[in-house]
Amino acid sequence: MRIVLFTGKGGVGKTTVAAATAVRAAAAGSRTLIMSTDPAHSLADSFDMPLGARATPIADRLWGEQIDAQERLEANWRDIQEFVIAFMNWAGVDAVEAEELSVIPGLDEIFSLTDVKHHVDSGAYDLLIIDAAPTAETLRLLSLPEVMNWYIERIFPVERRVVKTIRPLLSRLTSMPIADDRIFAAVERLHRNLDGVRQLLTNERMSSVRLVVNPEKMVIAEARRTYTYLSLFGYRVDAIVANRIIPPEVEDPYFGKWKDIQAEHLETIKESFEPVPILTARLFDREMVGVELLAAMGVEVYGELDPMAILHLDEPMRVHKRGASYVLSLRLPFTERADLNVFRRADELFIRVGSYKRNLALPQTLQRLDVQDASFVDDRLEVRFARETGGRATAAAGMRTEGGPDG
Ligand SMILES: Nc1ncnc2c1ncn2[C@@H]1O[C@H](COP(=O)(O)OP(=O)(O)OP(=O)(O)O)[C@@H](O)[C@H]1O
Ligand SMILES: [Mg+2]
To answer: Are residues 59 and 86 in the same domain?
Structure first.
């Protein structure tokens, strides 16, 4: 079973490339399901046929699904939401306002992703292709399970115990709504679902992300940022698809200048992302809609490559021994040092890059050691751990602490 998720800036051709990949894989013999988690669905437009909220047959071995985000939201969130609304009403928030406030933006997309787990468990497909929303939303969506986990694992067990003991007392003293077992069960179910999805999407043998770009300055800049954040959260990018390249046979002088500009940007794309393979698709002379044209595009993008293969496998995080210390090394390309903050608390390492935060559960070997320093070696962040030695004060782990010689 393989999962390939496509993302990139708005309008670069994500849906088209994802659809072309699905068509190609199905033609090559894989049972393929393409699903979109972007609430602004355009898969049906791309295939030029209606697609339902359940897997709809498109061609031999090919199915498509446009998830009804609202339905998933209600299934996962309704119980919790009712409690939140009741609580806000009790606290004096106007009913309509409470209803509005209980809707967290982006949650519907996240619940759409819970379908991934369902499809993997079903065993009905060899390949799952996800047409995700443009980058910003996708990143939020991919990092949320981890952020929620953090809260749920720490706060809920405590809360639940407390509530169990004081619920009888509370309900006698106040009219405050108190979460009952049904709410806790809903939260736990949600937690399990999200965690399941995260585990699937960060499983390097199963899931890859492909970034779609156009040879344009701003698109590339955003793709680089996306790449950093994806690495931070442990998602593997196995290919970049550069789409809408003006082909050599276009000789109209009007496009001459554009071709030069594109050539330059393609060079930047290569320099930025290699050794990740860069696949290309030309700007076709029409809109690439319908199975036939998508098939042509699939051939163009993949050539002899198997669209289902893991096209590149790099190791975003590893731990190795160096002298008496251990080094945790995390690939974080395109990171400005000034953007980065690392600190450790108990058995967790907190890494902040720009506005994204990640808390890494430290592997066993590192849990008993102290952070000595953190520094950049090429595009890898290296955090050095060692046993605190008697006379020597432990260096604070800040990014301005450059790694000194070992020993
Ligand atoms: N290489 C190409 N040649 C010609 N037309 C293309 C090419 N790639 C995409 N298109 C066309 O560009 C339009 C936008 O593409 P698409 O919907 O795939 O972009 P998207 O990145 O999914 O957009 P959104 O961010 O809105 O989801 C579509 O009409 C599609 O047919
Ligand atoms: Mg799209």
So the answer is: no
**What is the pTM (predicted TM-score) of this model?**
0.81
Please indicate, yes or no, if residue 402 is contained in any of the structural domains: no
According to DSSP, residue 96 is labeled H
Tell me the per-residue pLDDT of 141-183, one tens digit each, with 9 for 90 and over: 667 666 666 666 666 666 666 666 666 666 666 666 666 777 7
What is the domain range of residue 372?
A: 317-386
Say whether both 160 and 77 belong to one domain: yes
Q: What is the number of domains present in the chain?
A: 3
Using alpha carbons, list the distances in angstroms from residue 311 to 207, 223, 236, 239, 276: 11, 18, 10, 6, 8
Which residues does ligand 1 sit against, CB inside 6 Å? 10-16, 38, 42, 134, 243-244, 281, 283-284, 287-289
Q: What is the pLDDT of residues 22-71, one digit of tens each?
A: 999 999 999 999 999 877 789 999 999 999 889 999 999 999 999 887 78
Same domain, 13 and 117: yes
Which of 15, 216, 246, 299 has most ligand 1 atoms within 8 Å of its beta carbon, as the pocket-test mutant?
A: 15
